[in-house]
From TrEMBL:
Pfam families named in the record: CofD
Gene3D superfamilies registered for this protein in UniProt: CofD-like domains
Biased amino acid composition, Basic residues: 1-12
Classification via InterPro entries: CofD (IPR002882), CofD-like_dom_sf (IPR038136)
Protein name: Maternal effect embryo arrest 18
GO MF term set: LPPG:FO 2-phospho-L-lactate transferase activity
Amino acid sequence: MASSPNRHHRRCYSNPNPPQPQPALLVFSGGTAFNGVVEDLKNFTTRVAHVLPVSDDGGSTAEIVRVLGGPAVGDIRSRCLRLSDQSTAEALAVRNLLGHRLPLEPLQAKSEWYSIVEGDHVLWKGVSKPYRETIRSFLVYFQNQILCRSEGSFCFSNGSFQWVELEL
């Protein structure tokens, strides 16, 4: 007994439980206040667009803008870290590196910065050589810009790696 084309189509291609599309969200936010919510949103949907201001004026962002100019990217850095991959040990190592803040004490901060730029710091553990050399090249470039523009007055205290993430 031959089946009709419509009957065959329904039997082969219909899915009684089609996957439900994830909701799409557009989030307007700023600062670190919303970062905790970002972690929860990742469990709800991956279809989220974030609109962030470039008016951050705190911490290392203010220092970078003072010395190098440009938009304030601290909030963007923070949000990118929250949205970054965490599925492998290396992804977590890179996230830890880029999420690290230097000490508050200026001399300790500067010393730790140089250790990171040189590739000697413990934060590099778990980061493969290709990633290490790519990230270090941006750190070296940033260091060069500091030396050219800051006349020795750049303050590394409580600094973060926002300059690297923008370039990556």
